[in-house]
Amino acid sequence: MNKAGLIDAIAAKSGLDKKQSGAALAAMLEAVEEALVAGDRVQLIGFGTWSVNERSARTGRNPSNNEVIEIPAKNVVKFKPGASLAKAVN
Q: What is the C-alpha separation between 47 and 37, in angstroms, rounded?
């Protein structure tokens, strides 16, 4: 499912029109992004939790020439599914 499909599904299930559904989805995604940038966790009980983890610097190898390279530290977004979502998928 892509963004347009998700907007269609939100519109069908909520009774909102597509424009309102798109605005609601955009607002939700923006709020999640702002919270993660601020270093907060976003937890939706039953669905899952988004958090930011720090990945430390490490060395790696370039597969084309086997040269050792330094991979810098960075922050990554982690998603842990909630119990209800995990159960529904399985």
A: 21
